[in-house]
Amino acid sequence: MPHLRVGNLADAEADARIALETGPRLPGVHAALALSVLFETLAERGEFEAAEAADSRYPLVEHFPTMIQAAWLLAARGRLRLAELRPAAALDDLFAAGDLFTRLGSPSPATPWRSDAALAHLALGAQGEARTLAAEEVALAEEFDGPRTLGVALRAAGLAEDGERGIELLRQAVGVLESSAAALERARAMTDLGAALRRAGRRAESREILRPALDLAHRCGAHALTERARAELTAAGGRPRRLVLTGLDSLTPSERRVAQLAAAGLSNRDIAQHLFITARTVEGHLTHAYQKLDITSRDQLPGVLASHDFETAPTFG
Question: Which of 71, 106, 141 is the last residue of a domain?
Answer without folding.
Answer: 106
